[in-house]
Design brief:
Radius of gyration: 25 Å
Structural class: alpha/beta
Number of helices: 9
Enzyme class: transferase
Strand order of the largest sheet: 2-3-1-4-11-5
Protein name: ATP phosphoribosyltransferase
Subcellular location: Cytoplasm
GO molecular function, one term: magnesium ion binding
Largest sheet: 6 strands, mixed
Bound molecules: adenosine monophosphate
Helix content: 25-40%
Keywords: Amino-acid biosynthesis, ATP-binding, Cytoplasm, Glycosyltransferase, Histidine biosynthesis, Magnesium, Metal-binding, Nucleotide-binding, Transferase
Order of helices and strands: EHEEHEHEEEHEHEHEEHEHEEHE
Shape: flat
Oligomer: single chain
Length: 287
């Protein structure tokens, strides 16, 4: 039986999830937006496209074996799932935000009986109980940020990423309730064989994430400057150095480097007389 893996069918997490799974090596047969199921040519998986909110419930009940969704949704909808891996994207935080004009500068300033609009009632309730505040929760399904202006609530709790939505609605972030990002989760009672395979997928996803910060650099370098090149291009175990047929004054070097180092490295190599510099992306890095 293939592992039933649920992936968000739209929204922020959809594209990145699919891209990472594909780069991890799963050949997912894509059939457009309305597709519910996709088979995977290689690997023992079948992919289901579902709403990110529903994925938590389906994984909890075992209707699907595993899924990619937001950690915020896992926390909000009761745990009962196994966290297999943080995916490293979709990073955001559930925060308390107040109108800039409210005069509220800290959590202590929030009066008992204040109304908070949120689509995360459980986490919000827990948070305010933990700090000993009695607040009234107005549950909404979206657009929390307009609720104070509409007079529906005194303040909100909502997901914040860049903070620009809060700013454009004249709201100020007061406190972070929880950090979140996309996660790979599994059913608690998953058969050990399936769990093993899921862990292999998690390893493959890790190799994709590591590779995203790296590039593969190739260059032809004069032999005379090789020692100097080694001082700033350590790579993983130093650059791989290869002879070029018919040349004894120049060698080819190959090295994996951090994306952030490319600009300076290329400049240094050029100054030392390197030529034929190529920088190519890496799909995966398996240690
Ligand atoms: P921002 O303006 O970048 O702070 O984004 C805030 C808006 O995007 C809010 O409406 C949030 O509900 C939503 N949002 C931000 N990050 C995420 C995420 N990782 N997953 C789902 N919704 C998010």
């Amino acid at each position: 039986m293939p592992i039933k893996l649920a992936v968000p069918n739209k929204g922020r997490l959809n594209e990145r999830s699919l891209e990472m799974l594909k780069r991890a090596g799963l050949e997912i047969e894509n059939g457009g937006d309305r597709l519910l199921f996709a088979s995977v040519k290689n690997g023992n998986f079948s992919v289901l496209f579902l709403r990110a909110q529903d994925i938590v419930r389906f994984v909890q009940t075992g209707a699907v074996d595993a899924g990619i969704t937001g950690w915020d949704l896992v926390l909000e909808n009761g745990n009962g799932v196994e966290l297999v891996r943080e995916m490293g994207f979709g990073k955001c935080r559930l925060s308390v935000a107040v109108p800039e004009s409210s005069g509220i500068n800290s959590l202590e300033d929030i009066a008992d009986g204040s109304r908070v609009a949120t689509s995360f009632p459980n986490m919000t309730k827990q948070f305010f109980e933990s700090i000993g505040k009695k607040v009234e929760i107005a549950v909404i399904s979206g657009a929390a940020e307009v609720m104070p202006r509409m007079g529906v609530a005194d303040f909100i709790t909502d997901l914040v990423s860049s903070g620009s939505t809060l700013k454009s609605n004249n709201l100020r972030e007061l406190a972070v309730i929880s950090e979140s990002q996309a996660v790979l989760i599994a059913s608690k009672n998953l058969h050990s064989e399936k769990m093993k395979e899921l862990e292999e997928l998690a390893n493959a996803l890790e190799s994709v994430e590591i590779a995203e910060h790296k590039k593969y650099l190739m260059a032809d370098v004069p032999v005379a400057v090789l020692d100097e090149v080694r001082t700033f291009l350590p790579g993983i175990d130093g650059p791989t150095v290869m002879n070029i047929a018919g040349r004894d004054d120049v060698v080819a070097i190959h090295v994996v480097i951090d994306k952030s180092q490319i600009y300076n490295t290329v400049n240094k190599l050029k100054k030392l007389g390197a030529s034929g510099i190529l920088i190519v992306p890496i799909d995966r890095m398996v240690p």
